[in-house]
């Protein structure tokens, strides 16, 4: 059954079904942007294009071993009109997790927009959000671990020494963003991703907060170049033979990452207070 939400979403579903045997697809988020172009020599001829970004939960019968390749192929099959960021579970894994209790999957299946499903078997499984003090303890511990790692990496970027190659600092900045995103995803969704690219993690976090906009590039070349270096920090370390000197991009990304981390800390503090009440956690005597 294909839900007729839009032509672009229908094209995405068709592309996904060509790449994998799919049980169901749920839409977590959707963004659309419009662009137009014209030539002064031909003022009457204008080109308008709408591009889409879909964040999806894809439940397939077989494991999708390379999520990045999967997402790229969907992008190409939709004529580069629709890009997806997809979370993947197998049908067997989904059934097991629902029976055992997975607040993330229960949340998605109950509130996500179902774009395609082969059958309704999963709705016969438990769909009750679980609340318990031990669950709160696990969430709090996971966030604190990720936060400690993020703080550690950020502190290392601020060591006062003569740095002759900035590529190593970009790798540290990348880890700050990655660890913070992973902490927030478990704190807000109880999700442990199995794919860790910076654009992917930022997109997921962007579904429940606006913190990623501290990192996302603006219209200037400086911010776009800094974001590119942040996302490809490992490449900058492994392949170029010339060193990267400190410049405006480095200062820009340092400030952006610092603000991202600080705002994440504030969000986490508020979220932990709310979760503490929901899970009935009592203060220790």
Describe the protein in words:
The protein is an alpha+beta fold and 285 residues long. It folds into two domains: 7-124, Alpha-Beta Plaits (2-Layer Sandwich); 133-278, Four Helix Bundle (Hemerythrin (Met), subunit A), CATH 1.20.120.330. Helix content is 52%, strand content 18%. The chain has helices at residues 7-19, 67-77, 91-100, 103-111, 133-157, 167-189, 198-205, 221-231, 233-238, 248-278; strands at residues 22-39, 42-60, 82-90, 113-117. Strand 2 (42-60), helix 2 and strand 3 form a beta-alpha-beta unit. The longest helix has 31 residues, at 248-278. The mean pLDDT is 88.
List the helices and strands and how they pair.
Blueprint: H1 7-19, E1 22-39, E2 42-60, H2 67-77, E3 82-90, H3 91-100, H4 103-111, E4 113-117, H5 133-157, H6 167-189, H7 198-205, H8 221-231, H9 233-238, H10 248-278
Parallel strand pairs: 2-3
Antiparallel strand pairs: 1-2, 1-4
What structural class results from the helix and strand content?
Answer: alpha+beta
Helix content: 40-55%
What would you call the shape? globular
CATH top level class name of the largest domain? Mainly Alpha
Q: What count of helical segments does DSSP give?
A: 10
> What is the topology, as strand order, of the major beta sheet?
3-2-1-4
State the oligomer. single chain
Number of strands: 4
How many structural domains are formed by the residues?
2
The fourth-level CATH homologous superfamily of the largest domain is Nucleotidyltransferases  domain 2
Q: Bin the strand percentage.
A: 15-25%
Within the CATH hierarchy, at the fold level, what is the topology of the largest domain?
Answer: Four Helix Bundle (Hemerythrin (Met), subunit A)
Taken in chain order, the helices and strands follow as: HEEHEHHEHHHHHH
Low-confidence stretches: none
The average pLDDT score comes to 88
CATH architecture of the largest domain: Up-down Bundle
Computed over alpha carbons, the radius of gyration is: 21 Å
Distance between the termini: 55 Å
Largest sheet: 4 strands, mixed
